[in-house]
Amino acid sequence: MNKLPPQTRPTPAPELLHSARPASPAARPEALRSLLALRSLLALGLVLLTACQAPEQELASMVDANRRDLLALEGTAGLGRKVHGRVAHRVERARELVRRTTPTTPAACLDGARLLVRSDLAADLALAEELGRLAAAAGDQDALPLVAEAVDRQLLISDRPQRYGTVYVWVPVLKAWRLYDVDPATTDEERAAMGVSPFRELLEREEQLNGERWRGRIR
Question: Which pLDDT belongs to residue 38?
Answer without folding.
Answer: 65
